[in-house]
Sequence to fold (161 residues):
Amino acid sequence: MPLNISKITLIVGGAPMSIAERELMFEAIRRAMPAEVERNADSSLVANFTINKLHQISKYLTPMIGLRGVEVLFSRSLDLTSKEFAWLTATDPRLDKATQMAFVSEQLQARESNEASKASYTFFATFTELLISLIGISLTSRLLEPIWATVPPAPQKESKS
Fold:
């Protein structure tokens, strides 16, 4: 009997969340990675992508949870991600967000692009899970949707011959 994903729910932060909803959010993160990053072109592209998205997330979330709330989520996500990617272990978790972001950028640039991409995705997935546990899937989805939305390719115009 096939598994019906739409019927399964997880309890996260006290609110039911379907696995399908959760997976859609993580798929949006994957799709947001630029094609150059996915082709493993250069780890500096991964670092730039990651830092740009972190700035966007901070901009969207600060009015809701405050700058300190964003910094705490960032630090905790970095700490959890460093369990899989030890090279992301910050020397002092109390460092301000700008210093931590510079550290993350340096570390991503120092890795092979494939490893940097995996670490970036893991960080964003972890950040998203933590945010879901605090404010729920619906609000998290609404807040982060503009950040992960990808612009569909423009239709090619037919040239007149």
The two ends are 55 Å apart (CA to CA). The longest helix spans residues 43-81. The first strand starts at residue 9 and ends at 12.
